[in-house]
Amino acid sequence: MNIKELARNENSEQRFLAGHSLCRGCGIPIMARTVLNSIDTPVVVVNATGCLEVATTRYPTSAWGVPWLHVAFENAAAAASGVESAYRSLVKRGKLPADEKVTFVVFGGDGGTYDIGLQSLSGALERGHRFLYVCYDNEAYMNTGIQRSSATPFGASTTTSPAGTKSFGKAQQRKDLTSIAVAHHIPYVGQSSISHWHDLSQKVKKAVAKDGPSFLNVLSTCQLGWQHEPREAVKIAQLAVDTCFWPLYEIENGRYNLTHRPPEKLNIKKWLSTQGRFKHLFENGNEDHLAAIQQQVDEDWERLLERCENDKSYFEPLQETNQTTLSAEA
Amino acid sequence: MRLIQGNEACALGALEAGCRFYAGYPITPASEIMEWMARKLPALDGTFVQMEDEIASLAAVIGASWAGKKAMTATSGPGFSLMQEHVGYAAMTETPCVIVDSQRGGPSTGLPTLPSQGDVMQARWGTHGDHAVIVLTASSVLDTYVMTVKAFNLSETYRVPVVLLLDATISHMRENVELPELEIVERITEAEGGEDIFGNRAFFPFGVGPRKVVTGLAHDEKGKPETSRGQVGERLLKKALDRLYVDRDHIVSYKNYQAGDAKWLILSYGITSRPARAAVDKMREEGEKVGLIDLQTLWPFPDELVQSYSEKVEGILMPELNLGQLIMPAKAAIEGRAPVYPFNRADGKLFTPAEIIEAMREIMYNGKLDQTAILEQRRNGK
Question: What is the CA radius of gyration of chain B?
Answer without folding.
Answer: 21
